From TrEMBL:
It comes from Nesterenkonia salmonea. Keywords: Hydrolase. Residues 184-206 are annotated as: Disordered. This is 6-phosphogluconolactonase. It is an enzyme of class 3 (hydrolase).
């Protein structure tokens, strides 16, 4: 049985901006606001990061905001960062999402704003795990270490992972999110937080990946996509047809429990169905 749309989650909202810079600045501002509000209500905030051009540009926009407003009020010692997916490559390899995120924001938070290094939960490297399945199991154990007692409710039973207050996602030109690619078996994995992918499309870089599953995505409170560029327009349009094919466009199933927001620039939004 193939993947199906999780209609029990929050319906997606669409916000359109002039260009990628406007998209990333808007998400960065909202990210800081929601983290602050979350920490007013609970002890910790959990944020899942993404790679890709718009995802990393968003983190750079957060860093720029911090440099302009050092008294931003966020207690970074209470924030934990996770990833939606990662390339199984050597540590510090420039193609790793972790490496790019550290350069864009996380190293600055550690060095200047009090983020503990142990609050950065990177996915395994190729030195840690010989193959994606092993890496997925390692990350599942890391997630479990921060899960509430009894886990959290997922669409197919409880998952042993923390509830992500914010999950940032990019969308590929082929409609993928995280390392959940069209037509792959990983789209149908249920009842677990992570899975391995050994055969990512060659045009998208290294083939071996570790990724969160749809079940994990669907436990996040807020799922925000950052989508910019004309090359994303076709995927965005297919995600918003009346009955999207999740096997063809996994991004259509990017949904949170409380909120789902697609942030698109005008180029990425140009083929969206008229409402």
């Amino acid at each position: 049985m193939g993947p199906t749309l999780n209609t029990a989650t929050a319906e997606p909202q669409i916000e359109i901006f002039d260009d990628r810079e406007a998209v990333t600045q808007a998400i960065a501002k909202k990210l800081l606001t929601v983290i602050t509000e979350t920490l007013d209500e609970q002890d910790l905030a959990h944020v899942s990061l993404t790679g890709g051009g718009a995802g990393i540009a968003t983190l750079k926009a957060v860093a720029d905001t911090l440099s302009e407003d050092s008294a931003n009020g966020v207690e970074w010692s209470r924030v934990h960062f996770w990833w939606g997916d990662e390339r199984l490559l050597p540590r510090d390899e420039t193609d790793r999402n972790e490496t790019q995120a550290r350069q864009a924001l996380l190293d600055t938070l550690v060095g200047e704003h009090g983020l503990p290094e142990e609050n950065i939960h990177a996915m395994p490297t190729s030195e840690d795990a010989a193959h994606p399945a092993a890496g997925a199991e390692m990350y599942a154990q890391e997630l479990e270490a921060y899960a509430p007692e009894g886990g959290i409710e997922g669409p197919n039973g409880s998952l042993n992972m923390p509830e992500m207050d914010i999950m940032l996602l990019g969308v590929g030109p082929d409609g993928h999110i995280n390392s959940l690619f069209p037509g792959k078996e990983s789209l149908s994995v249920t009842g677990q937080s992570t899975t391995g992918e050994s055969d990512a499309p060659p045009q998208l870089g290294p083939p071996m990946r570790v990724t969160l599953t749809f079940d994990a995505v669907h436990t996040a409170k807020r799922v925000w996509t950052a989508v910019a560029g004309q090359d994303k327009a076709d995927a965005a349009a297919k995600a918003f047809v009346d009955s999207p094919d999740i096997s063809e466009v996994p991004a259509a199933n990017a949904r949170g429990t409380h909120q789902t927001v697609w942030h698109l620039d005008r180029a990425a939004a140009e083929q969206l169905p008229q409402t």
